[in-house]
């Protein structure tokens, strides 16, 4: 690690510099950590949309029709699809963290596989939920 050396500084004042982000190689674990945080934030927004839908339901038929039209539109369904993925991805990320909490999966191949499986499982289960949802309706 490089040390900052300014003229006239005392040895005890010299502190190591933090490595810059460009030094690190982007990994699956880093990407899934960022995705876990982003999906957590997205769930707040999605939950507000759920609350808006419930308020429309409680407000009467006209408000509910408007909410149903909005959520039934292409953009509404796209947002709901993203919310479904965010929910499932965040859940699988939480399971990955739980596995680490019990002391498993710390070696490099296991970390890599857990990160990949988080993404694969969330995408596959999202598609499955929507296929079943359309098949039942």
TrEMBL record:
Q: What's the superkingdom here?
A: Bacteria
- Annotated GO CC locations: membrane
**InterPro entries in the record:** SQR/QFR_C/D (IPR034804), Succ_DH_cyt_bsu_CS (IPR018495), Succ_DH_cytb556 (IPR014314), SuccDH_FuR_B_TM-su (IPR000701)
- Pfam families reported for this sequence: Sdh_cyt
- Name of the protein in its database record: Succinate dehydrogenase cytochrome b556 subunit
Main function? Membrane-anchoring subunit of succinate dehydrogenase (SDH).
Q: How is the cofactor bound?
A: The heme is bound between the two transmembrane subunits.
Q: How does it sit in the membrane?
A: Multi-pass membrane protein
Subcellular localization(s) per the UniProt record: Membrane
